[in-house]
Design brief:
This protein is an all-alpha fold. Helix content is 59%, strand content 0%. The protein is globular and about 35 Å long.
């Protein structure tokens, strides 16, 4: 399934996923960071330390991600994340990482 408003790469990745979850497009950069940490089987405390958050904030992020993806409970979210880990990492690169990379430094006219 290809959608004209999505880039070809993004449409291809979404079509390769056995369970397409359009809620992924609505995740914020911070929610993506939490989701990718879930893929790595990190605990809430480990995610909190890694992302400089409180453990309660991690719980809140997990709940928001679950709501957006229509996955009830942290076990379902973790199963989804592990099952689709490769596609999720590719989506993250397409949706988030490329947008937030620092622009190339312009060379000064003196150099």
């Amino acid at each position: 399934m290809k959608l004209p408003h999505l880039s070809t790469s993004l449409a291809n990745i979404l079509s390769e996923m056995k369970v397409v979850n359009w809620g992924l497009i609505d995740l914020t950069p911070r929610e993506w960071q939490v989701l990718l940490s879930i893929i790595d089987d990190l605990t809430n405390a480990e995610i909190a330390e890694l992302l400089c958050l409180s453990p309660k904030s991690v719980v809140n992020y997990r709940n928001r991600i679950g709501c957006k993806l229509n996955l009830q409970g942290s076990r379902k979210l973790a199963q989804f994340a592990r099952k689709h880990q490769h596609e999720l990492r590719q989506l993250y690169e397409l949706l988030i990482a490329k947008r937030h990379k620092a622009p190339k430094k312009l060379s000064s006219p003196d150099s």
